[in-house]
Amino acid sequence: MSDPDRPAWWTNAVVYQIYPRSFADSTGNGTGDLAGITQKLDYLSELGVDVIWLSPVHESPQYDNGYDISNYRRIDSMYGSEADFDALLDGIHSRGMKLIMDLVVNHTSSEHEGFRRSAASRSSAERDSYWWRDPRPGFAPESQGGTQQLGFPFRRFRLDLRSRDGTVLPASLHSAAAGPQLGESSGAGRRPHHDELVDGPGRRRLPDGCH
After folding, report:
1. Closest CA to 88 of 30, 29, 23, 28
2. Selecting from 3.40.630.30, 3.40.640.10, 3.90.1010.20, 3.30.750.90, what CATH number does the domain 12-104 have?
3. Which residues are paired to 148 by β-bridges?
4. What is the pLDDT along the chain (211 residues), one digit of tens a residue?
5. C-beta neighbour count of 140 within 10 angstroms
6. FRET partner for 132 with CA separation of 20 to 30 A, picked from 30, 48, 63, 183?
């Protein structure tokens, strides 16, 4: 039983955030990876780190630095494998540290299978698992079926995306950059990553948020 007078662990923990792509490269290919982080765990422990906050490492097309997740069951191959993640987690725990996984659950990648099923037609059984609306008067539809998907943040505010030389990027890149927003539905139209995060087959169940 927890001591009500004892401060919660997170009130005085030292948290170190890692963006894996640039932290440590174990293969020499120019991209940081999970094995590289594992190699640095002794260093992080010596710094006095209690918690590693790991930026997204799930499978993603990487239009939004990994926050556009296309598969919540898989580690992106650019960072390694599920075995590499297991080794990292075991190494963190063996040093008395914790791991917080940074991932977004209010939107997904436009390449997530759930979004593709939702976008297939207005009558899709999974239509309501994402937010859709008709385009505003005077604006051309931006997606299938004469509807507009709510994405963050570009399509919502209709901003032009520009490359470094100042040219406006094509509409197809607007779509890629905008993470389709998930709805609040239930039943057949529930959020498409629900099974992946909660009770999907093959998922190794981890306790209570911080591991």
Report:
1. 23
2. 3.30.750.90
3. 133
4. 567 778 888 889 999 999 999 999 999 999 999 999 999 999 999 999 999 999 999 999 988 889 888 988 899 999 999 999 999 999 999 999 999 998 777 888 888 888 888 878 878 888 778 777 666 666 555 544 344 555 443 333 333 444 445 444 444 444 455 577 777 654 444 555 555 554 443 444 333 334 3
5. 8
6. 63
Residues in the chain: 211
Sign of CA dihedral 109, 115, 121, 127: negative
CA distance between the termini of the chain: 19
Indicate the domain borders of the chain: 12-104, 113-194
Q: Name the residue type at position 155.
A: R
Closest to 92 measured CA to CA, from 12, 196, 6, 211: 211
pTM: 0.72
